[in-house]
Amino acid sequence: MSFKALLKIGGSLVNDPTSFKNLCNHLEKLYSLHPFIIIPGGGLFADNVRLIDKEFNLKAEHSHFMAILSMNLIGYLLHTQLTKSLLVSNIEKLNYSKWKAENDLMIPIFLPFKYLLNNDILPHSWEITSDSIAYFIAQELKINKIILVKNVDGLFDKDPNKFSNAKFISQISADELLKMSGTSCIDKYLPILIKKYKTSCFLVSGLYPSRITKIIENKKAKFSLIF
Q1: Could you say which DSSP state residue 220 is in?
Q2: How far from 106 is each of 103, 144, 164, CA to CA, in Å?
Q3: Buried b (16+ CB within 10 A) or exposed e, 215-224
Q4: Can you tell me whether residue 109 is helix, strand or coil?
Q5: Is 40:130 a contact under the CB 8 Å cutoff?
Q6: Count of Cβ atoms closer than 10 Å to residue 76 Cβ
Q7: How are the residues of the chain apportioned to helix, strand and coil, as percentages rounded to the nearest 5?
Q8: Spelled out in words, what is the top-level CATH class assigned to the domain 5-226?
Q9: Per-residue confidence in pLDDT tens, the chain, 227 aa
Q10: At a CB cut-off of 8 Å and minimum separation 6, what does 57 contact?
Q11: CA neighbor of 78 nearest in space, from 136, 140, 31
């Protein structure tokens, strides 16, 4: 047996504290049925790194790791809201059988900064965000169900906040997604990783936590599948 899924909890969900707390309550109940690993997004902390990067004209390496460090900060916030959780920096601790024996019912929240600093494999670019980092970590852990949890229903052919006729995309290939560069809510590097590793990933709204459960249980729900 292994962890059923890796969930990237988008930092943007923090902007709605009530929904964020509701999501955390749901995740605590879900974990007892379907154990998973959480990777935090960067949220408002990463947004501030972008501003600082522009202001001080940072080297790509510096802004890259500052943005990854912002994921750790959201991870600490998640830890405060998930009463049964543990912060993990050592990826070797995320062996399911060992984890269950030592930390049963404790949700692992992986803080990626230390690991990626010591395993500097991904390019240093703003085209890589927590989306690609979560996907990459899932490959390292050999977890096949990757769920990006954000504050949107999924992918659209255009920005639904600007265009009332935006069409929802339930499934899309990595090749097709690459052609949508700059118009989707995920980073530009993710479809490149999907093409490389041949593992699909889901994009779903954390404002409706039951959808996450349905994905893990292979039930019908509203989400976008990238293959």
Answers
A1: -
A2: 5, 21, 42
A3: bbeeeebebb
A4: strand
A5: yes
A6: 12
A7: 45, 15, 35
A8: alpha beta
A9: 789 999 999 999 999 999 999 999 999 999 999 999 999 999 999 999 999 999 999 999 999 999 999 999 999 999 999 999 999 999 999 999 999 999 999 999 999 999 999 999 999 999 999 999 999 999 999 999 999 999 999 999 988 888 999 999 999 999 999 988 666 799 999 999 999 999 999 999 999 999 999 999 999 999 999 99
A10: none
A11: 31
Sign of CA dihedral 162, 168, 172, 176: negative
Dihedral pair phi/psi, residue 185, rounded to 5°: -95, 10
Question: Which residues, 6+ apart, have CB-to-CB distance to 123 below 8 Å?
Answer: 189
- Taking each helix axis from N to C end, the angle separating 130-141 and 190-197, rounded to the nearest 10 degrees, works out to 20
Tell me how far apart the alpha carbons of residues 137 and 148 are, in angstroms, rounded to a whole number.
13
The CA-atom distances, in angstroms, between 220 and each of 22, 26, 224, 225 are 22, 18, 11, 12
Which residues touch 128 (CB under 8 Å, ≥6 apart)?
Answer: 64, 122, 187, 189
Query: Which pTM does this prediction carry?
Result: 0.96
> Which string of b and e fits 28-55 if b means at least 16 CB within 10 Å?
bebbeeebbbbbbbbbebbeebeeebee
